[in-house]
What we know:
It is found in: Cell membrane. 39% of the residues lie in helices and 13% in strands. By secondary structure, it is α/β, with parallel strands linked by helices. It has a 9-stranded parallel sheet. Bound molecules: 2-acetamido-2-deoxy-beta-D-glucopyranose (NAG) (4 copies).
Amino acid sequence: MIYFNILALLSFVLGYAASSYGAHDSNPASGSSWNRLERIKSMYAWEGFVYDIEACRSTEEMAQDFSEMKERGARVVITFEFCGTGADVSYYDDVITAAEIVGIDIIPLAWTLPIHAVGQTYGPNDTFLIKSVPRIEAVAQVVINNPGPVLAIAIGDEPLYDNDAGSPTALASYITQVRQNLTTAGLSDMPLSISDLALGWQSSGNITPVADAVDFFMVNNFPYFAFDATSGGNASTSWDDFITDIEYFQSIAGGRPILVTQTGWPTNEDEFAPNSPDVVASIASSEGYRNLLDSRCEEYFKEMNIGWMWRSWEDDIDGWGVKFLNGSDKWDWRARIEC
Ligand SMILES: *[C@@H]1O[C@H](CO)[C@@H](O)[C@H](O)[C@H]1NC(C)=O
Ligand SMILES: *[C@@H]1O[C@H](CO)[C@@H](O)[C@H](O)[C@H]1NC(C)=O
Ligand SMILES: *[C@@H]1O[C@H](CO)[C@@H](O)[C@H](O)[C@H]1NC(C)=O
Ligand SMILES: *[C@@H]1O[C@H](CO)[C@@H](O)[C@H](O)[C@H]1NC(C)=O
């Protein structure tokens, strides 16, 4: 009951009526079913943002952020990092509720690295079994509780690249467990994947169990980290590196959909340094990379049926946001959502 009151209040405060659901080919009012994999298959062009949840923002704050994203044309949000221990079902429920209020699709990501991306060192309890598995279970549970706005589930951010589970076979067994639990709950059609780099898949030995376990491919694609990166985001090497990685995914996807869940170019090198000394991280460079992707809408993304999501919304991931942490825009974000 409290839940519905909060939902009504927030909808009112944010000016979103329930009719905002279904305004686009997206999540309908919760309860009714929608074909998620068909929606993923139909995606191309810019789809939305990566959203860091480490700051544990409230439902109201997240709904505000999601509505600002939606004003810019975003249709999907994927989470990054984790709040608290990351195993708290009620926090993921807040995230999904915020998406539901605003009428935007959400991809909850179970953070499978035992520790945070930066600023933490491994302690004796920071193992996959102790830290990561409870997060996978929490995400599976919350989606079972409230599947409405959930487009898909990401089981790990670069879990192959970081070898989080110890082997591709072990990782695949958790994906399979999540699928079994979803199926028992009547959600056998919930798309599952991992969000990883081409290099993650390429460097992990026998990836067949994981490739067989996923419904589609979520791609982390960062020409910024390429060893041959030459300068700004708009360089022709950026595009060459981008499509080289996509071609790899096409070679293992067997016709299943591909969605670039994380791509971007930072405005500083503070959190993640590049691998090439020639790389320029700046606002112009970041905007140039966005322009590069946007300019390939007809010729590439529509042709290949591939959507892309920008990392990141704000500078929680230092330098990667389209907004500073104080909420002001680095530049006026625009990207085509169709062409
Ligand atoms: C590891 O977990 C055990 C059992 O919960 C606990 O007693 C111990 O204090 C933890 N160690 C650290 C370093 O957090
Ligand atoms: C699947 O459900 C079982 C039974 O409720 C539970 O013990 C297990 O932790 C769940 N696994 C995952 C990965 O959600
Ligand atoms: C970047 O590249 C695109 C296409 O290659 C071009 O349209 C655009 O003007 C370039 N420059 C900047 C600064 O973005
Ligand atoms: C927000 O932070 C940026 C970077 O530090 C700064 O340039 C900008 O003026 C700030 N905006 C406001 C409204 O404080």
